Amino acid sequence: MNSSLNDHATTSAVPEQPAHHEPEHERAAIAALGHELRALVDATVRTAASPDTLHRVTDGVRSLTRQLTGRRRARAEIPSVDEFPGGVRMYSPVTGAGSPLAPPMRVTPADGGVAGTCVLGKAHEGPPGYGHGGMSAMLLDELMGWACVAAGTPAMTVSLQLRYHRPVPLDTPLRAFAQVTGVEDRRVSVGGVITTEEDHATVLVAADGVFVSPDPDRARALFPSLPGT
Ligand SMILES: CCCCCCCCCCCCCCCC(=O)SCCNC(=O)CCNC(=O)[C@H](O)C(C)(C)COP(=O)(O)OP(=O)(O)OC[C@H]1O[C@@H](n2cnc3c(N)ncnc32)[C@H](O)[C@@H]1OP(=O)(O)O
Q1: Distance 20 CA to ligand 1 centre (A)
Q2: Contact 90, 30 (CB under 8 A)
Q3: Of 96, 127, 136, 185, which has the fewest CB atoms closer than 10 Å, so is most exposed?
Q4: Is residue 161 domain-resident?
Q5: Residue 126: which CATH number?
Q6: What pLDDT is attached to residue 1?
Q7: pLDDT at position 16 over 50
Q8: pTM higher than 0.95, yes or no?
Q9: ipTM confidence
Q10: What number does the ligand 1 atom closest to the CA of 154 have?
Q11: What are the start and end residues of every segment in region (Disordered) (predicted)?
Q12: Has residue 218 been placed in a domain?
């Protein structure tokens, strides 16, 4: 898949855009494409269209991919529209408005922690009609990371323990909540849960995690393009 995308990147179908835009203007364009791509992903995993239709759509998608030309971001490059760590991440697979993979989850401060709301769709399915367990882990991991940031200790997951109490329904508004439960030097303990929006009392998935703030040398090595590292 990567090699075919790389091939497409060398084929210029539309003129390259100028490099600098207002961040809000750029974010709106990224979010608009992300929205349409999520609709495409959803339609793709729900459709019962004929093989002929699938081949026709495949051709159309291939030609669209060829239009995403220009410079490609390097592996560890932080997009100029992002605020890392602790702010908007346009291509996060959990919160990113520009990600075709993200639900996307909306994060807000809440009750001494952070809350995340989203709806999982067919593309996030595990058991028929329910969310994939890895998806629940990803939602909680991300939100627990946001809880660390909200507590003033940006940190990375070193341990995550999940308990799956009930299946997570698809096509249903969900609410996740995470909060820091303890800080010891660079080690941050965090708890998180997923419920439905309708019933906050019934925990579907619960998580306990240990997050660690990298020491400055490690942070510099991991994130060389982060200003100040
Ligand atoms: C300014 C820049 C800020 C950057 C802030 C980044 C924010 C980032 C947000 C990304 C967006 C969110 C996304 C969702 C969260 C992910 O998904 S993060 C991705 C998944 N996690 C990873 O890839 C982390 C992999 N691990 C590592 O790279 C390194 O372990 C770390 C986290 C950089 C820490 O390395 P280090 O600074 O060298 O720390 P180290 O000395 O090994 O350990 C520090 C302490 O933690 C303890 N510890 C280590 N592992 C464990 C463990 N499994 N259990 C218990 N304790 C442990 C150690 O024992 C040590 O304790 P003491 O011996 O000092 O008492």
Answers
A1: 34
A2: yes
A3: 185
A4: yes
A5: 3.10.129.10
A6: 27
A7: no
A8: no
A9: 0.93
A10: 5
A11: 1-25
A12: yes
